[in-house]
Predict the structure.
Amino acid sequence: MTTSPEQAYDLGDIPSARAVGMGGALNALGVSTAALYMNPANLPLARVYHLEALGALMPEAQRETVGLAVVDSVLNTSRLAGGVALDWSQLDPDGIHRSWTDARAGIAMPVGDHLSFGATGRWLRVNQTVDTGPFGTSLASDGTSGQPLFNALTFDLGATAIIVDGLQVALVGHNLTNPGTAIAPTTAAAGLGYTTPTFAIEADGMLDFTTWGRTQGRVMGGAEAFVAERYALRAGWRYDSGERVNAPSLGIGYIDPKWSVELSGRHDLVSEHSSTLIVLSLRYFYDPTGGTTPPDEGDSM
């Protein structure tokens, strides 16, 4: 790979097409399957039953990601919402060849009409080649080469408040067991977003307490427009102080009452080691009421 390991791994995040298109700014407005990866408190904020398959590619890092997710906030009789996701990734197969399996289960419940809390349990298993250096296999340095680099459970907690109709603020923490490794870094993020049935805009900030040995930040912003009753157009920007990277992003989606296909891309515009990320997502919308349109047009976005 031609990027730095930190850029290639990107906190171990699973990229969502909608989030990538909006510069990663989706902690306040990210409902549906995106909530499993970003802020579980958003799971009950849209009445959906969505199934998603995604694939992502980062050519310079030789990184690939594939995954499946399902979210349900309508089939249960209580106000609980939940979802599960399973994803597999690898990077630099000709070098360090890091691969990881990421399994998540999230649950959330609204409190009244203006507040929601959620939690996601995450199992992460990471393997990496340990004998690919210039001197090959070494008993002194390879250690337990047959064991995973990381294999543990951790969790995320989130809260989202609806200030007024359409205006939402969110707080979320990731990997709160504090594993103490950049493989599963402990982070805290906040987001402020405003949405209507045809337009959304959000700004987020994140603190990374683990990856760089000292706290570094990330600032993200993005917007989307829903046009011609079928198309979602997205644009965003992300700055990471640890990687010292400025990265614009664009996305487009075709959204039918029963399914959607979404494509987003991000490219490092100012960076010592430039990289590109492309994400493709396919989603199916199940309507248990038997209707022909989603309960809320905004839910499809």
